[in-house]
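Dear Dr. V.,

Thank you for agreeing to look over these. As mentioned in my earlier message, I'm a first-year student in the group and I'm still getting used to reading structure tokens, so any feedback on how I've presented them would be very welcome. I ran two proteins. I've put each sequence directly above its structure. The first is here:
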Amino acid sequence: MSFTRFQSFQKYTRYVLSAILLLVIMASGCRNTSFIQPGDTLEVAYEKALALYEDEKWDEAAGAFSAVLTLGRGSIVAQDAQFYLAEANYKNKRYLVAASEYERFTLLYPDSPRRETADLNIARCYYELSPRYKLDQTYTVQAIENFNIFLSRYPSSEYREEAIASIDALREKLAQKIYSAADFYRRTQRYEAAVLTYGEVIDQYPETAWAEQSLVEQMESYILYADNSVSDRQRERYQKALDVYDTYLQLFPRGESRTRIEELFDEAEAAIASFSSNTSTASR
């Protein structure tokens, strides 16, 4: 390459690089104007925050609405800013933060027409935070409580069915957690703890899918408990198994586990009959 051509190439390269740099600066400048700047009025700051929200830039929108609230907590735009702050966090799946911001909204603006949405979304946040059944269920309980509050406050809401279905799903999870604990006790031969814990499922969550199976496992656990008890306590515990059978027939007369429960009934009844036979023989 000649020296002249090399100089021309250098000038062209500098021109291209300068053009690229200018475009970057211009783009950066355009981008920056969409964010709140020092000196922006409260109204301008709010409009910028709303534009970010409408562009689904949830992180930036949440930060912008926080800035708006810092600038004018008691202003005319504060109510909308507080609501959109909660909404931006909710849509960004920051559920714990969103729940807190919705709660703040309901405390500050209890008569707002958006109160129903805020109350519903508080419950939805805790629903989303509810973990799988093996983990701590604090958020599950909070979700149920908030859905119940929602149903009490808005009995004719168009979201009534959603709230009921959500409560049902959450209660299934709580029932499964207790059932899992009872099953663990049974498998580790802690039969007394097992029958009591299966009883919790039946007493607290009778409408769930875990109630019928809990009755079956409770009856089997009573039989195993009796089998492994001292002779003076066996008859009493076999009888408790038969009591569970009666409860099963009352709650699930056409239950899917009817065949199994009948087998357990025969086993417990035969064990009690053997006691009667032994007692009769001993008295002769």
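The second protein is here, in the same arrangement:
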Amino acid sequence: MARKHNRRANKRSQSVDIKEYAQKVEIVFRTFPTRKFNYKQIASQLGYKPEMVKAKVEMALSDLMQSGKILMVDRGKYKLKYTATYAEGVVDMASNGNGYIVSPDVESDIMVRAPNLMHALNGDRVKIGLFATKSSKKLEGEVIEILERKQTDFVGTIEIGKGHGFLVASSRKMLVDIYIPKAKLGGAENGQKVIARITDWPEKASSPFGEIIKVLGNAGDHNTEIHAVLAEFGLPNEFPVEVESAADELDTSIKEEEIAKRRDFRKVPTFTIDPADAKDFD
């Protein structure tokens, strides 16, 4: 009788132990709701050596499957069974208008089709709702909230029509034009390079509304194009007075001792295809 009692006690103890493991394993799946795990990866997440807990983890996985909380999607691989899952990430726009959300909690990028972007732009940090898909398909979702705009100022060319204009952005990742009302053109002329700032984007509007905040100059002009590139990448084209003064005081002459180290081609006829104001000569 004592042996039988001990076997029953051990069985109850093992059952409690597996339930505790199942709870820990479930937490792993809910922490990473779109990932697939095998028993080794689960053990690693729990901080155990796989060979030490293989049987317990496998029984915990079996328990979670029977309760309908996880699915086996590949041989030996499981993922959370869900009806609605959310994730956060950064938008990477494709040339076809679709976006791909890069998230640290998901193994692969999540595709969001153009109609489901909810006015999100390249680089924006967003919250998305994942669509329930079969395991063989790629993850898809829709943007449900824009958490943070990466940028609102864009460099491009202004195209002016009757009573309004559109900023056609220079960046290939900015796929929509910015609508500029006539009162917000800031003196810009058709075809000039400018910087526009998005001020609003009505829910049903296909383009954001904006204003011209700076006219860079005529497209094709050397200085204009340089300033346009600097502005596009957020680099300064103006510096404080004290910095300019310090730069002017720098001695840029070539000393005789330096000339002695070089081979002198100053008397050799030399031609270049670049203009006099180029930053380097070919």
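From my reading of the second output: Confidence is low (pLDDT under 50) at residues 4-14. Helices lie at 2-31, 39-46, 50-66, 222-232, 241-248, 256-259. Does that match how you would interpret it?

Kind regards,
E.
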